[in-house]
Amino acid sequence: MLRPTVHDVARVANVSLSTVDRVLNGRDGVRAATRERVRAAMRELGYERDIMAANLSRKRVYKVHFTLPEGSNSFMRNLAEEVRAQAREAARDRTRISISTVPPFDGRALAADLRRLRDAAPEAVPDGVVVVATDAAEVRQAVSELRGAGIEVITLVSDLPASARSRFVGIDNVSAGRTAAGLLGRFCRGQKGRIAIVAGSMLLRDHVERRLGFEQVMHAEFAHLAPMPPIEGRDAADEVERRVSEALEARPDITGIYSLGGGNGGLQRALLRVSPTPRPMVVAHELTEQSRHALQDGVFDAVLHQDIGHEVRSALDILRALIDATPVEAGRGLIRTEIFLRDNLP
Amino acid sequence: MLRPTVHDVARVANVSLSTVDRVLNGRDGVRAATRERVRAAMRELGYERDIMAANLSRKRVYKVHFTLPEGSNSFMRNLAEEVRAQAREAARDRTRISISTVPPFDGRALAADLRRLRDAAPEAVPDGVVVVATDAAEVRQAVSELRGAGIEVITLVSDLPASARSRFVGIDNVSAGRTAAGLLGRFCRGQKGRIAIVAGSMLLRDHVERRLGFEQVMHAEFAHLAPMPPIEGRDAADEVERRVSEALEARPDITGIYSLGGGNGGLQRALLRVSPTPRPMVVAHELTEQSRHALQDGVFDAVLHQDIGHEVRSALDILRALIDATPVEAGRGLIRTEIFLRDNLP
DNA sequence: AGGTTTTTGATGTACGTTAATCAAAATTCA
DNA sequence: TGAATTTTGATTAACGTACATCAAAAACCT
């Protein structure tokens, strides 16, 4: 009825506690036949080691390090804030979190930071690393070295494909772009017109993937709407404001806008200033104070959002599971993109 | 550096381990002055009891009972399936789950089931109960009695307001209705026309709340669209098919459809059969095999969804926290309504 | 067969907490 | 002041696992 323990396994397998322990923890000095007997007993009883008791016993502390891009934009600042918040809570779960920041978009600096972790004093080497990856060969190399040293690596928010990272935690940006198109296309149904794309995202990879998904669906399903070449706002509100204003004045047939990066404050100001009629439908990314107000005021129609708190929690859960060599579901880590209208703001 | 333990607290407070234990577990026989000294030491050290060690020691098993409406519709069947799945996993977390089912919409039967739990043999009395509530006075009374017996009660999916339940876990149905209106209104922008509402929900309360939210937003923001009186489909696909077909034939100006309950298969068939042009925009609830296909085929435009797995997990987490008298955030339990288009299907 | 090596068993301690027992000290009351 | 009572301390054994040590048994060599 109750969960079986190592004692039960020992009894059923007809071996001593020590032998069960040796099998369980992969120590050597056990004949293959005996090992198999123990394994069979475990299967028969449905034994699962009690991780809490195990961690208590081995006084395990999960040492986790986060390497984040330093204050490049408000999304990253939020992320850092969230990690700090989780760090406090995580102490409860035997998890000690350290954080370092590196210049954004600088593959070399990021790689150097990761190497530093591996080469630290033994007691300071983390069991796992969470990194917002910059897509560069040096980084791939550094990740591979960490894994070689037995350190689990999770990429957060922005993935590093074709690398040795253990897992990716974040949203599917292609799907996010497709979703934006699905919404905007339906919002602009039955109208001919142009769609402005405001780019200049926080991370090159996200930018590209979102735009890819967006144009896929626009072409396939909403051919009457013509996406324009992206307006590069460089994530800076002033820049976005200036360039979007120009575009709106030059092209009165802009019927929809997809903003896939930062600088939403500028977009909002441009829309208020030029106020074209009928107002274009707007889909943007990331729920912030700015975009929340834009939704409430009816300037934005929808905001696609990734819940960073959820992402950080998820990364920690998965990391602990990886460190314990506990099975972790494949789908875990694929964070869903949330859709907010003014009507379902949290 | 490391987490402080009871030993550290004892040392700092200058008392014995026994006294710390007595304070920690609310046993009596401690003078108020001493108790305060111990509390001060805990605060000073930032002591937090190690729940895992504590549970190990007191061999705690969380006994949780789920009372669900029996096979009333596919949503409830999914829910039951999900609970059974979680029951297997929950064993890992020292949680033993039992399940009972009662006839749907029958407040008396539900109340009787809840009373049975309280009056069971002491070792069978659960520490917490999760119930899909039917809104009735007897149920409120039974919940209140459970709480009086020290049993935590969580309402799942459908709440029991003005009752003694400890928490509610589920979506905000008013907000879901508002969101549906926000989407459908934008999908039907610039068109005059009627909006058909297909009702007959699984639970009266959800039905009412969703419709309320929907009409709120429709009136306020999309006055050019006129919601029709609801088509009562009684959650049965055949009934829905018949009545929606009739409505579509009778009123060619139906430009949007909001289906807030079950029977989506019937809705889909009606739309394919009558195939009005231009096709009406459709927003429905709950992602199932049926509605997924309808999205993929472009018959439905959006589906609002509650993630039952998430809800069940959330209920268990909160319940354990309540049983441990651990603080639990206020916002926890408010499950977000997810929005799916064909472009972001999981 | 004897010796060597490998495999297994027995035992104890630890992790941080709960919980019980019994003795010692402090406090209250007559 | 002495007895009765309350409060505190000291000690011990769990919970399920990890890990170390030493001895015993079994298997492997020549």
UniProtKB/TrEMBL annotation, chains A, B:
Q: By its UniProt entry, which PROSITE patterns does this protein fall under?
A: HTH_LACI_1 (PS00356), HTH_LACI_2 (PS50932)
Q: Name one GO molecular function term.
A: transcription cis-regulatory region binding
A Pfam family recorded for this sequence: Peripla_BP_4
Looking at the record, the residues that make up the HTH lacI-type domain are 4-58
Recite the UniProt keywords alphabetically: DNA-binding, Transcription, Transcription regulation
State the SMART domains in the record: HTH_LACI (SM00354)
- Superkingdom field: Bacteria
* InterPro entries to which the protein is assigned, alphabetical: HTH_LacI, Lambda_DNA-bd_dom_sf, Peripla_BP_I, SBP_2_dom
Query: Which PANTHER family did the record assign?
Result: LACI-RELATED TRANSCRIPTIONAL REPRESSOR, TRANSCRIPTIONAL REGULATORY PROTEIN
Q: What is this protein called?
A: LacI family transcriptional regulator
Q: Which organism is it from?
A: Limimaricola cinnabarinus
